[in-house]
Specification:
Bound molecules: 5,10-Methenyltetrahydrofolate
Strand content: 15-25%
Oligomer: single chain
CATH superfamily of the largest domain: NAD(P)-binding Rossmann-like Domain
Structural class: alpha/beta
CATH architecture of the largest domain: 3-Layer(aba) Sandwich
């Protein structure tokens, strides 16, 4: 079997068009332009692309973008102060504090201070709790984007087994919650899972979110399975060139899977589209308008 390629970039661009229309409608009806504030502390080379793509997407979607680029030695108190200001700013509907933060800053403290109603990353414990009990709230962007991709291929997950490799608060856990909400039978696997390849082979839907380049091999994949690759790893090829690869050995797994996301061009662009979507939702809620 040769897998169909799930084109995350195309689906993300289609979402941008829909978001643009809804943002323009909100501006016309309520005079409100959805605003996203991004706080960056220090220089993380991997985040440069992310920030660039985010700025491009906000423009495409007709959203306002507020950038706060702070030096690595910025104190925790200063970052907390900025978050407090953004919490109060009516032009800001979404706040994203880019992770990882420098070691001298307690990220739990910073994330916990973000107004849950502006927490477009969905990282605040209140939003994590809302997701786990099925209340409306912000869903983290990467799992939300991955769920949209899965739905395009397979709208009905009841009776299907989903295996999520990775148990992070940012991807693995919320991904599992979303799949459960959609009636999949869900296994969360991780580094201590016994015979991980065998567990993965039972998956109708396999989501890899571990941050290990090309860890998932062809013989881990059930023939016909949907494979979602959340990993974005920068590696150096034997020829000394930089290259972006996922957590899935793409070429060999594409020969076994039914559908698979590429890296780049898969989950990454969907993460950004969902950040736009969460910001749009937030602005609609703040304006008391219905999407
Ligand atoms: N508070 C917070 N929220 C985040 O969501 C967050 C974060 N911190 N810190 C950094 C990571 C990383 N991340 C990416 C999202 C999209 C692409 C992306 O668009 N990738 C494209 C292009 C990749 C490329 O060409 O380098 C793709 O996969 O096709 C990459 C990386 C979000 N993160």
């Amino acid at each position: 079997m040769v897998a169909s390629v799930i084109d995350g970039k195309k689906i993300a661009n289609e979402l941008h068009v829909e978001i643009r229309a809804k943002a323009d409608a909100l501006a016309a009806s309520h005079g409100v332009v959805p605003g996203l504030a991004v706080v960056l502390v220090g220089e993380d080379p991997a985040s440069a692309v992310y920030v660039r793509n985010k700025v491009k997407a906000t423009a495409e979607c007709g959203l306002k973008s507020f950038e706060f680029k702070l030096p690595a030695e910025t104190s925790e108190a200063e970052v907390l102060g900025i978050v407090e200001r953004l919490n109060k700013d009516p032009d800001v509907h979404g706040i994203l504090v880019q992770l990882p933060l420098p070691k001298h800053i307690d990220s739990d403290k910073v994330l916990g201070l973000i107004d849950p109603d502006k927490d477009v990353d969905g990282f605040h414990p209140l939003n994590a709790g809302r997701l786990s009990v099925g209340l409306p709230g912000f869903v983290p962007c990467t799992p939300r984007g991955s769920a949209i991709l899965i739905e395009k291929v397979q709208p009905d997950l009841s009776g299907l087994h989903a295996v999520v490799i990775g148990r992070s608060n940012i991807v693995g856990k919320p991904m599992a919650q979303l799949l459960l909400q959609k009636n999949a039978t869900v296994t969360i696997a991780h580094s201590r899972t016994k015979d991980l390849p065998a567990v993965c082979r039972t998956a109708d839907i396999l989501v890899a979110a571990v941050g290990r380049p090309e860890m998932v091999k062809a013989d881990w994949v059930k023939p016909g399975a949907i494979v979602i690759d959340v990993g974005i790893n920068r590696i150096t090829t034997p020829e000394g060139k930089g290259k972006l690869v996922g957590d899935v050995a793409y070429a060999e797994c594409a020969e076994v899977a039914g559908a698979i996301t590429p890296v780049p061009g898969g989950v990454g662009p969907m993460t950004i589209a969902c950040l736009m979507l969460n910001t749009l939702d937030s602005a609609y809620r703040a304006a008391g308008a219905t999407v």
